[in-house]
Amino acid sequence: MGLLSDPNRRRALIGMLTRLNAPICLICYMAGVAWFMGLAFEPFTLRTYMSENAMGSTMVEERFPSGERALATGREFAAHKKKNGGMPVDWLVRTMQSRGLEVFTQHFSRKLPFPDEDKERYMVKGTNVYGILRAPRAPRTEALVLSAPCSPGNDNNQAVGLLLGLAQYFRSQIYWAKDIIFLVNEHDLIGMQAWLEGYHHTNTTGMDWSPLQGRGGSIQAALSLELSSDVVTSLDLVLEGLNGQLPNLDLANLFYAFCQKIGVLCTIQGKLPRNDWDTTSGYSHAVQTMMLMVLKQASGRPWGDHGLFLRYHIEAASIKGVNSFRQYKTDATTVGRLMEGMYRKLNNLLERLHQSYFFYLMPSLTRFVSIGYYMPAFGLLAVILLLRALDLWVQLSSPPTKTEEGGIEVPSSPGVLSILTPLVISHLTGVALYTLPILSQELAVEHFPVSETEAVVLTAIAIYTAGLALPHNTHRLLSGEGTEQGWKVLKLVAVLYLAVLLGCTALINFSLGFILALTLVPLAAFITPHVPKALSAFVMVVLSPGFTLLFAVFFFQELQETPVSVQEGWMLFLSVISQGILDHALYGSLVYPLVALLVYPCWLLFWNILFWK
Amino acid sequence: MAAYRCKCLGLWFFLYTLLVVDIDADVLHTAQVTDTEYTGADAETVLASDLPNPPQDTGEQTAEQTTEGQQDRQWEATEVQEEHGHDASDHHQAVDPPSFPPAKDDFKEELVIRPLHSGDIYASFQFRTVWDTDFMGEQKVSHYRLFPKSLGQVITKFSVRELHISFTQGYWRTMQWGQPYLPSPPGAELWVWFQDTVTDVDGTWKELTNVLSGIFCASLNFIDSTNTVQPSASFKPLGIGNVTDHSFLRYATLPREIVCTENLTPWKKLLPCGSKAGLSVLLKSEKLFHSTFHSQAVHVRPVCQDPQCRTTSMELRQTLNVVLDLHTSGQGKREWSLFKMFSRTLTEACPLASSSKVYVDITDNPQGEQFELSPATPLLTQAVVLGDRRTYSVYDLTQQATFGPSRSLNTLLRWKSTDGDMLRPLLHSERYVAGYGLQAGEIHTLMYNNHPYRAFPVLLLSTVPWYLRLYIHTLSVTSKGKDNTPSYIHYQPSKDRERPHLLEMLLQLPPNSVTEVTVEFERALLKWTEYTPDPNHGFYVGSSVISALVPSVVAMDTDNTLERPLFSSFFPCKEEASYFMRIYTEPLLVNLPTPDFSMPYNVICLTCTVVAVGYGSLYNLLTRTFQVDEPSPGLAKRIANVVRRMRGVPPL
């Protein structure tokens, strides 16, 4: 630190940084992106390994025999579901009771803030049924959860059948050390949210639920099973949870270990692990897998019923059966044996899963990138903001230079008002974007021929667009002309604000932080009032959070190999916005408030700088 | 003030009733079995075949005795005579040196089998040794016969008035199994009343726990001041005695204690017959620990020696309760036999026992529609247990006829019906931790009163370790949506690393209601050496204890259609209007904020780097005053200055 203490060297260093600011920023940006793309390159990643000793060396035998009977139970369940037109509560209670479980039900109801057109629900009323297998000689302090959703239509009947079959088989075993809770939740995530809130007696989202009667202590791990066919070709593991939280990597390792042991094809993001990393196609496969994970994580929504467990520090994952056109099929008995093996190992846990990583990206099921490897990619982007801030700071603090063109540099410091006004106004716009869509839906429905959902989404887009007129409003409020100093101070504030904002976001949800940084950082770096207005305005709009979302939608569809036309993409974009708002209201996802209340106002600040007078 | 006094009075009355009811229950019990009382004198002769060093050479006689029923009957006759003689000589024996104490101790064994509603089976062993001796007397007790010497010495050395210790693996499922005969919390529980002659109770307690830890091969030495409390009302002496000064009481639980064969063996060693004969042959660990619930306990207490209660005897009651599960027993057949339960059958009574019986609860099965019991026994007995009148089939192991031609008793119970609905016990409870995150939380204790019209009082005792900092101002008690003010609260705040929170409350549970007691807490950050070796497992909070006076089922019977004399049925209250019941809630497992112990090196490195680089340089920049030096002179100028100094001229 002698470097900074010595004024001469400090001056030299700062001089260099300000002189070479633009090239350094450019290099940093490219290095950041390159680093990120390198993460998927196999030699740079680590192989997954089991960290938890309790699950590693202990061998378990899988003996689950009755897959066929489980499927028959599943068919019976389907018949009762059809007859009841929903969850066959009585049948489930009876069936679970006859399998020797302690059975309880929970009723819940929830009125959505506006109708969900994707899932066609508005007033949701349902019942969760769960049965607890009490472990012998255990004092009800620890539990594991196995859940299967009771989905509408013909989905997931096999999952419920297998769940009941496993319950019957597990019940006759003596080795359980933790209670096992078999949960059939109605209305997928809403039911799960109600059950988890009831179990932990919290109410974060204002849902109505009846209190639970039976509990099994602190839940150590949970798996959610989704199975819609009698045979499967592969099993897909879903890890991404609410707000981009991930379960401990050991859960993924456990799944992979058993797939290997039993000989089931297993995928993540629907993509099989490949060995040909040194070919272009192998590399691009890994990139695609990783990008899918990044996009899913950035969305902040739970991608399976497991996603809501993570808030309660319960390691959870969803296992989805995939039935494709492959020749090789796996029957329900094998899937049951896989589940049995996983539960027996989880049962062996002496402590909560904590040994392995909580922050990681997976370019394939066998490879992972830990936080120490991916954070530099973000750091390289974030450092650009700091460099720009340093540059501005130096420009602001250096004495006014006499310029040759005779321009008079007025050293008057800009009024607080000139900084505060855009800050306050852009944040008020953000608040409007956050609150108005839901509040004004009735008004919009009255005056325009749209449904409630459309009203909410279109209001959001309208407010978002209206924010573009902000500079005019700001200037009307400001007394004098904006000064050269003024925009620099404002930009300094905005750049530091963005740096803090992105830094915090990346710590919680790396993917979201990185994607936002990817678009917002270049914009924050180059914007000044002196760049060509029209072109810059266009670039800014294209790089705004809203358009980032639009591109992400198209990109995601492309990666999933289900490309969409522009029209479909636009509809998808609208539904993603409504889902985002709903996720926030129903499960407490933070992406919508984050974007509306912080990221968007921050972007508006830069917009303001562009139109600085 | 008046109201306060009333509450106090109410409390004392309640406590007094607890005591009385308990003693009553005890008297009832003894009265019930007196008809088949035997004395140790005869038992001793029987013992001869089993003991390695028989006191008298009566080997032949015993051999004959086991084969012939005729002689058996003769023995019963002589026994009665001797009993009379013993009664007569009772007075001078008290002063006699214990050289020959034939009639002073008595051993009984008993097994109760209760087929449970869920199809499971509950087996409860009770072994009772009563010794008419005064451990605290002038005379040093040194001659032991039936009473285990190891315990006797402990009682003498530590001046123990009453000692209750239980080791339990599993949680009693009240909703499926009803009430246990002897409740116990998961893990180990120890409570002791010391004699009022003890001056340093805490020191004695510490020593006692260490000694007991050795005797029972258990980790009772982990009992220290951080988990010991002195309940003011919940634990009253179960034996006779009128002590109310709870400073002589110590109570501790270890919810984490795991019970296994190593605890069973020393427990079995305390039995007069060991595991050689009598009911204790059934206590084979491979079956006992293949159960869903296992609890073993030792209770020592003073009891009345005679109906007038002039002198006291010491009673040692060893109990072992197991619940065997139908589903995990395999085989698929819905039937239980002694062999299937314990992989042994009974062939004889313990020769030292004055009474040895097997009871099978057949109350729910009057016409044999629920299950079928074989071999059938004509002997029936009735008893009021836990407020309910129960009927039992009795197998007297001292009768040769019991064993039948195969010379072994293998009671078989075959289920006919299959319903596994949940019960609605009058009182049951539930406890859990609410909230998420590692900062705060809330402990909820729910108590259900399922009685249709009667409210009853309960005493709730909860002990919470100091590292959960209870916010006692957030304590709330609600029933049916309304506040329920406890009529008595005893709260002792915790001291960090010294003592736990103790909260005792006397509550009235309204009929047909759920009473919820909630209190918020904050999780403390421990010092790094205070974490257990498996900190991510969580930390245990012991079970809460709910002691209640529950209206008895017999008294609840208001069915007027039943045939009964009119004069007996006007007032709804009966003699045993309510009975004492103690239930334990689940222990809790709470996660505390835990540092990542797996990478201390990384943590240390990172912290040091951050401190050194970040803080150091910033501090440096902030505090140092910077001055611009003169630019250092060139070489020529320096040489010139040296020359000038030599010349004595001021430098340039």
Structure, described:
The complex is a heterodimer of chains A (about 625) and B (about 650). Helix content of chain A is about 55%, strand content about 15%. Chain A has helices spanning about 1-5, 5-20, 20-40, 55, 65-85, 90-100, 155-170, 190-200, 250-260, 280-300, 330-345, 370-395, 415-440, 440-445, 450-465, 470-475, 485-510, 510-525, 535-540, 545-560, 565-585, 590-610; strands at about 45, 100-115, 120-135, 140-150, 180-185, 210, 220-225, 235-240, 265-270, 315-320, 360-365, 365-370. In chain A, the strands form 2 sheets. Chain A has a 9-stranded mixed β-sheet, sandwiched between helices. A 3-stranded antiparallel β-sheet of chain A has the order 1-12-11. In chain A, strand 4 (about 140-150), helix 7 (about 155-170) and strand 5 form a beta-alpha-beta unit. Chain A is globular, with a radius of gyration of 27 Å. The relative contact order of chain A is 0.12. Mean pLDDT of chain A is about 90; it is low at about 400-410. With about 650 residues, chain B is of the alpha+beta class. Chain B has 3 domains: about 105-415, no CATH class; about 425-590, Sandwich (Immunoglobulin-like); about 600-650, no CATH class. Chain B has helices at about 1-35, 40-45, 60-65, 70-90, 90-95, 150-155, 175, 200-215, 260-270, 285-290, 340, 555, 600-625, 635-645, and strands at about 105-115, 120-130, 160-170, 185-195, 230, 250-255, 295-305, 310-325, 335, 355-360, 370-375, 380-385, 390-395, 410-415, 425-435, 440-450, 455-465, 470-480, 480-485, 490, 500-510, 515-525, 540, 545-550, 580-585, 590. Chain B has an 11-stranded mixed β-sheet, with helices on both faces. In chain B, helix 3 (about 60-65) packs across helix 4. The radius of gyration of chain B is 33 Å and the shape is elongated. Residues about 1-10 and about 15-105 of chain B have low confidence and may be disordered. Classes of the chains: A alpha/beta (about 625), B alpha+beta (about 650). At the A-B interface, loops of A face strand 15, strand 26 and helix 13 of B.
